[in-house]
Amino acid sequence: MAGFSLALDDDQQQIRNWVHDFAERVVRPAAAEWDEREEFPWPVVQEAAAIGLYGFDFVANAALDPTGLTLPVALEELFWGDAGIGLAVFGSSLAAAAIFANGTAEQHGEWLPQCYGTADRLMLAAFCVSEADAGSDVSSLRTRARLDEATGEWVLDGAKAWITNGGIADVHVVVATVDPALGGRGQAAFVVPPGTAGLSQGTKYRKHGIRASHTAEVVLDGVRVPGRCLLGGKERLDERLARAREAQASGAAQPAMSTFEATRPAVGAQAIGIARAAYEYALEYAGERRAFGRPIAEHQGIGFLLADLATEIDAARLLVWRAAWQANHGGLHRGEGSMSKLKAGRVAVWATERALQILGGQGYTRDCPVERWHRDAKIYDIFEGTEQIQQLVIARALTGLRVG
Ligand SMILES: Cc1cc2nc3c(=O)[nH]c(=O)nc-3n(C[C@H](O)[C@H](O)[C@H](O)COP(=O)(O)OP(=O)(O)OC[C@H]3O[C@@H](n4cnc5c(N)ncnc54)[C@H](O)[C@@H]3O)c2cc1C
């Protein structure tokens, strides 16, 4: 951890203030309306694009920061504004991260800008992994990709479930099985370009929280994509499959689920944004609301709760920043990415529930944002790896055993 510092440099402070200003001025005032409408907040994302917050350049610059802290710092502020709108702004980046991690330089050049489009012509992207019968257990995906040798095209068939931006995105990145006998090792990721025939939106889900973010099924019916849409290319896939077959023949264990370790602190930072919003709201309320002749914050039961809230949120942020920093300095070896997401998700769920308690009856009404934050927080125990899957990754990393 030599060199780890909690001090943000001038650029990072400027970015934090810039995102906070947008979250406070534009996102917060729009949050209740888009939650009620349960629709994708196009005008807000448009405004984010106009100032450069929604776009490839912003994400690329943040991801290139050598300390690793810029992205979590920016995300905490955006999601402090509102998590549903935050995900509408950030959702395309899940697909962009998959293209960045698995694609060649030519594929980066072709597809990454199309994940976002421009301020004049917004584009969206979706990362399609989960299926109705394969959420945590991603090794059992049924969506198939077959190579049509005659045309060199890949043909995708299947159905994806719970996809952020699914069906309304321009670019869909789809993970499919090339060799089902190899389980998770027999899969590959494909870009489905804008307007490709055979890809359609299925049911749009009606959700408990983050309702401004669009979540839907994606149906793939004989979707044909050119060979250049296979992320990483055919040669790399063939080598990977050959290695997987050898490992299977020798009985070698499948590597631990570590693909998402490096992106988990960014998800944790989103959860902290919600927790902090709820804590700040409760702190202010507790200073003003009077019961038994004095502000409720003076009652020890509430004062101590505020102390616990601040402590837990800071602890979660420290884990997120540590993992974000370590991902860029020698890597994550003890499940630190999962630890940060596990802790931040739990803290967000707990903190929003406790903040609602501090608000009393007020907190239980839809006019109070804490009610919405309480609903929004729960997703952080579920997506991008559930609470239990984080525990699994950490336990395996710590013991080196097939905990399961
Ligand atoms: C709003 C939303 C947006 C989403 N966006 C996307 C997206 O953009 N792209 C995408 O691909 N997916 C997305 N998902 C899917 C999400 O990643 C999955 O819902 C999640 O991985 C959990 O899978 P599941 O729902 O099938 O639950 P299951 O895997 O069925 O899990 C059910 C329960 O069993 C537990 N469990 C499962 N296996 C184990 C085990 N081995 N040990 C202990 N407990 C276990 C889980 O922790 C959970 O509590 C989204 C989901 C939601 C709700």
Write the layout of secondary structure elements.
Layout: H1 10-37, H2 42-50, H3 56-64, H4 70-81, H5 83-90, H6 92-102, H7 105-116, E1 125-128, E2 144-148, E3 153-164, E4 171-177, E5 187-192, E6 199-204, E7 215-225, H8 234-250, H9 264-288, E8 290-291, E9 294-295, H10 300-327, H11 336-359, H12 369-377, H13 387-399
Parallel strand pairs: 1-4
Antiparallel strand pairs: 2-3, 3-7, 4-5, 6-7, 8-9
Flavin-adenine dinucleotide is lined by residues 94, 127-130, 135-137, 162-164, 207, 210, 215, 379, 382-383, 386, 388-389, 392, 404.
Please give the count of helices.
13
- Give me the side-by-side strand order of the main sheet: 2-3-7-6
Portion in helices: 40-55%
In whole angstroms, the N-to-C terminal distance is 30 Å
Query: Main β-sheet: number of strands, strand sense, barrel status?
Result: 4 strands, antiparallel
Quantity of strands, as a count: 9
> Which quaternary structure do these chains form?
single chain
Question: What is the overall pLDDT average?
Answer: 95
